Amino acid sequence: MTATLARPTAPTKVLVDTAAVDDVAALRRLYHAVYGDCYPLRLGTDPVAMAAAMTDPTVTWRVARDTATGDVVGSALLRSDVPLRIGKVEGIAVDPGHAGAGIGGALLEALMESAFGADGRLDSVYATARCVSPAPQRLLLRHGFHPLGVLPGAVTLREVETLALLVRYRDGIPDNRRAPGTVPQEVAPLLEAARGHGVDFDDIHAEPAPVPPRTGAGTDLDVSHDPGLVLQRYAWTPAGAARTLPLHLPNTLLASPDGRFEAYAVIDAIAGNGLLLEADSAPEESPEALGDVLRAMAERGAAYIEAVLPLHDRNRIERYLAHGFTPTALYPAMRREDGVWHDYVLLSHTTARVDADALRVDDRFSPYVKQHGHVRAPAGPHPSDTTKRG
User: Fold this and answer.
1) What are the C-alpha distances in Å from 262 to residues 233, 251, 254, 289?
2) Which range, of 44-48, 123-127, 211-215, averages the lowest pLDDT?
3) What's the pTM?
4) I want to staple 304 with a disulfide (CB 3.0 to 4.6 A). Which of 273, 324, 358, 362 is the partner?
């Protein structure tokens, strides 16, 4: 699929088409021009991974070419989990010399056509945007994305940064969502913020339920990063046999020496974050094991850790809250099961200190930022705004 875009301030035209292996070197130069040497994704830095992605049927990679010179001046990609019908936009980058020409929007719409058009097989697509400037958030907002929350300290670039989380749905979604009933009081600010954006949570009630804080038992877990072992063991678990989270397979297995508890995680030490996929093998026998998992993940580079749980699973949410997680985003209608959409809540566990007042966000994210207002970071220079996307 191609599209031609005229720049408003110059006669240059831009062609949006599919990335090819021959573009790898140019794309690496583009991401370096936009992000410098701190870009955390392999799909902008690792030529082997980039070439492999371009032949991966789950990845749609679009580039924008200056038709006068042939130069690659923009890039964006969509990763799709077709069985779960969810996608993620990543790597939106526009050459600084072509900023303001609408290239980011053209790339984004090309990806949305792939996701939701006549041949699209996704129900929702999510994305994150940096909070050093409102521009990346507004690009997504202009193209049909809705705010979901703010993730404090979620990624390390030149320094620890906070990300905004957004989603766009296929037309007609969501409908017929499951009513969770009651949720912990800590989730209430997210419910109110989402209601302000038109999401119906009338059948949900937040109730206080003080949960005694827990820490780890001090157990040294057995940790494996062997891909074959981790994926084989994960496939045997209920979570692995019927995955609830899209686009993620674990690269780390954490297990208690006595075999009573296993957890599976994705750890990205370069970006300084991790995703906890499953940590409930035998919680009634190991109530402190989650604390040991968090410690082991942090020791291996995950200063920021996420968990995504069904909103109706109040007991499990409270278990994570007791170990220091904070509700930071809601994903309405994330999954459809038996004809009913299920909402999910994203919880974050972070050692970063975030100055909420210093974040540069669009006003539509303000309700989500307020819940982090009590967390302060040391004063210092603000990150440069030279790496705007789109």
Assistant:
1) 10, 13, 6, 9
2) 211-215
3) 0.88
4) 273
